[in-house]
Design brief:
about 35% helix; Nucleotidyltransferase, domain 5; single chain; about 425 residues; 3 domains; globular; alpha+beta; 5-stranded mixed beta sheet
Length: about 425
């Protein structure tokens, strides 16, 4: 029987872990993967004069979107908006969805395999008399967004869980959950800094682990900078100039810069598809007529119209990953006439993300200050999440604490496993 369920609802990927009554912790598998992409795809079909709305979640959502990007609506990075009071609801093919409803729709799909995997004691499939498992959901220390309201974000996350059929959940800080997995390897007291890197946020928590007394929180800090921002820096420096960002166009005899809003969609790949509104496409087409390099804006139009943002970001993410183990790589991408063969050096990439790294480093220092501890008081630094593989990120910690104190492991499942243990 399942004693506890840990749900790591992430910006990019989500993971579910199960703690069994014998103490084992396993992850809920989705096909051959532990992770489930945090994405929804909606489309509408006419049935006997009625418009029926359909949806898919996770990898199936991406497949559905790529099959028909022009007549579907992709919803991503839902977690990013939880603490944004300005985002209340959105229109999806004539039906209004609150953010809580969207998150709940995703969570139901994420947990769809639980009854078969857990047999009993699950929210959807418990046997009569079987105790319901404890459900622990992760939350960031600081939610993403410039004007994020953390209490508001936590409240909306809990409300979304309730709407998904999980009315009694415990919210736990994600870095503390990651630390719980690491703590299982300790046999003596230690002060540990947990660095938890997601797609949208990076959280840092200082915790005192004592095998006899448990865990004592000492301090924490977080920032809305992580892997997605690093991807955007590559797009901004290596791709956008090839699409006309730095060019100009002629207005009443004067040269004007290409409107910056044409490239705002590259902040997240799914936002590019949101630019397919006829008014936006007409505006780009009109500017292209008098642009210094009209073919570049034509390429931008083709990327938007054909929903090529996902393929572009896959290429960018692959190049970023390659730079974690190589000094340079070649960013390759092709869409119709638009061809990219851009050599990117690790030093160049690190220069692009330098301002982000500085803010991340300041946040690490803020966590130390919140705990009232100097770097020398930290015994171990446990890093989790895909961004932990970026050498420049690891250097932030090595410079402060020494490379010998850095440890890792289970970079994509440690938070969920820690939540299930918690």
């Amino acid at each position: 029987m399942i004693q506890a369920i840990g749900i790591d609802f992430g910006t990019t990927n989500s993971v579910v872990a199960l703690r069994h009554d014998d103490g084992r912790v396993t992850t809920l598998r989705h096909g051959t993967s532990d992770v489930f992409r945090t994405v929804l795809c909606f489309w509408a079909e006419q049935t006997r004069g009625r418009l029926d709305l359909h949806h898919r979640a996770g990898p199936a959502a991406i497949e559905a979107y790529l099959e028909d990007p022009l007549d579907s609506r992709l919803i991503m990075s839902m977690k990013t908006y939880l603490a944004q009071k300005s985002f209340t609801e959105t229109n999806v093919f004539g039906r209004m969805f609150t953010l809580e409803a969207l998150v709940a729709t995703f969570l139901r799909a994420l947990l769809a395999d639980l009854p078969a995997a857990a047999d009993a004691g699950t929210p959807a499939g418990s046997r009569a008399g079987a105790p319901a498992p404890r459900i622990v959901v992760g939350r960031p220390v600081r939610f993403a967004g410039e004007f994020a309201d953390d209490a508001f974000g936590a409240g909306r996350l809990a409300a979304a869980c309730a709407e998904a059929g999980l009315p009694d959940v415990t919210l736990m800080l994600e870095p503390a959950a990651a630390g719980a997995r690491f703590a299982a390897t300790l046999n003596e007291p230690a002060t540990v800094l947990i660095g938890d890197f997601g797609g949208g946020t990076s959280d840092f928590s200082l915790l005192r682990f004592d095998p006899a007394a448990g865990v004592t929180p000492l301090g924490h800090a977080g920032i809305g900078i992580a892997g997605d921002v690093f991807d955007f820096r590559i797009i901004d420096h290596a791709i956008s100039p090839l699409l006309g960002r730095d060019d100009s166009y002629r207005v009443m005899g004067k040269q004007m810069p290409i409107p910056a809003e044409f490239f705002a969609g590259f902040a997240r790949w799914h936002r590019l598809s949101m630019m397919r509104a006829p008014r936006t496409l007409r505006a780009i087409d009109e500017v292209a007529r008098t642009a210094t390099h009209p073919e570049r804006l034509r390429h931008l139009l083709a990327l938007i119209e054909h929903g090529a943002g996902y393929a572009l970001y896959q290429a960018v993410s692959g190049a970023k990953a390659a730079l974690s183990s190589a000094e340079e790589t070649v960013l390759r991408f092709r869409h119709q006439e638009f061809v990219v063969e851009r050599r990117v050096a690790r030093a160049e990439f690190e220069a692009w993300i330098a301002p982000d790294l500085a803010r991340m480093g300041a946040t690490i220092d803020q966590a130390l200050a919140d705990a009232g501890l100097p770097p020398a008081a930290v015994d171990r630094v446990f890093l989790t999440g895909g961004t932990a593989f970026v050498p420049a990120v690891r250097k932030l910690f090595a410079d402060r604490f020494g490379a010998e104190r850095l440890v890792g492991g289970g970079e994509f499942v440690s938070v969920a496993e820690g939540l299930a243990r918690g």
